[in-house]
Amino acid sequence: MTESQSFTFKAETKQLLNILIHSLYQDREVFLRELLSNASDALNRLRFEMLTNAEVLDPRAELCIRLSADKENHRLVIEDTGLGMTREEIIEHLGTIAQSGARKFIEAAKNQQSDFSQVIGQFGVGFYSVFMVAESVRVSSRSFKQEAEPVSWFATGEDHFEVGAAEMSTRGTRIEIQLKEDAWEFADEYRLKAIIRKHSDYIGFPIYLGEEPQPVNKQASLWRTSRQSVTEEQYQDFYRTLTLDFESPLLHLHTQTDAPVQLYALLYIPGKGERGVFSLRKEDGLKLYSRNILIDEYNKALLPEHFRFVQGVVDSEDLPLNVSRETVQSSGLMPKLRKVLAGQVMKELESLAKNEAEKYATFWQEFGGYLKQGIAANPSETEGLKPLLRFKTNLRPESWTGLDDYLGRIPDGQKVIYYIVGDAPASVLRSPHLEYFHAQGTEVLLLTDPLDAFMLMGLRSYKDYPLENVAQADLPPASSPDSSPESSRLADEDFTTLVTQFKEVLGERVSGVRASQRLSQSVARLVDPEGAPNPEMQRVYKYLGEEFEAPKKILELNPGHVMLKDLITLEPGSDLQHLIIEQIYESALLVEGLHPDPSSMVERVQQIMAAALENRASRPGSS
Length: 623
Ligand code: ADP
Ligand code: MG
Fold this sequence. Notes:
By secondary structure, the protein is of the alpha+beta class.
């Protein structure tokens, strides 16, 4: 027999132990989940070994986990009949292996406000969580390898551990925990039962507690467990284990169907659109199982692109067992699974939109972009997404409006859905294109997200109502476009003179200058000439960074605007007239979001201010 030998923990492991022992974690019970999950891993690996290896020790031993609690002596023992560890393995796995996971956990725990112990298992250092509750721990193990000697490992959470011989007649691992005084509760069978049901119910091997002949756990994976018997907490727990996302999911969707395909699915819509820094999900896609066996970690074919933010697990009895990932992808089953799953997600979102507007608004804020992309990329297959779209409008800039809400509010004669594109809600609300519509009380969708321009490519109409851009909308002149007094309207010949002067000053920069019947507040606006790509297409080109020269615009002037009436009185060709024409044009560029260099206007604005002040100073007595 070998003598007991002392080893030092790796530096990062020491640090980790220090944190676990001294932090005041509330959820210390997760240590049990970690130990049970290790036992389950060991059992799984043994089962796998037995498929190919006839030489396994104790081949007939039941694959199970046993817990026994000694309340009087404050001890807890966890045993499994898994593959066990050899002396070398125990030294390496429980102490000397370099733990990048430990380092990451330490970093993450430092930056994270919430109770980080809950997710320690995700860092590959779950075993050490036992030191949240243990004064000392002894691990005895006997490997499935016939020739291996039983081995024992002992530590108190200080910087070293002892390895020596053990008495063990059967295969597997036994973990004996001497509980710290403040953790004596974990030697109570009721408490243990509750923890197992909460965190480890779906471990696939029986967990026996004390002398009871019935296992404590259900042994079914959570997604295969019937909805009625899963608690909200278990759903949340599972989500956290799956994603390491600290934000609670917005909703979960648990389905089991038999036709047209057999499937179990447990899907989640995360709380946030951005994956967290610590997220375990490195790619989009769902986990695909076939009868409880994982065959694809990130399966992207199970849901359409526009639902790729959905996380979760799908399991189907209909998938051929032991198939490679490639055969899964090409089997005719995938489209069927996808249809069912997409339909379920769709139904869930529709009901959320209908019944829980506030929650839906959160969904829309976080994930609306995916739906817009879906409509842009695949208009023919995303008809169903249109009712899920939400918009700000000129009449309701603070809340979200759906297309059905919009149609429900329009007056009888209106045959189109109006929208305006721009950079931000506040700036489009000031757009001269909106003036006419605003004055008429017509509702206009405000499309100010860069994705909106793309979406419009696939959203040309809704329920037979075409969508029309107010900058282009072909409308009869407003009944009273001119809110200014009749006296301020320019005489026709004056207006013609002014147009000539504008053309002279602006030259090649505009393709024309003309009167507008649509303006009431603004002095001018820019519109596209006939045949130009529409404003949203121009934006698409801009976002795609394509070589694209925006078509020269037409400057439309408001003949009723008092400023033009004063402008005509200035000496033709004077500096001030020139400055003002330039500024009218550049202001119009600015509200259109097209000004290449707004700060370049400052100098001109100063010159105009100086002229205004000079004018006042030369008229003493005026106030
Ligand atoms: P992880 O489970 O993520 O690998 P842990 O810290 O929980 O990280 O466990 C470290 C390693 O210790 C495991 O990978 C395994 O090799 C070994 N181990 C822990 N518990 C057992 C057990 N009950 N039976 C066999 N090996 C175990
Ligand atoms: Mg583990």
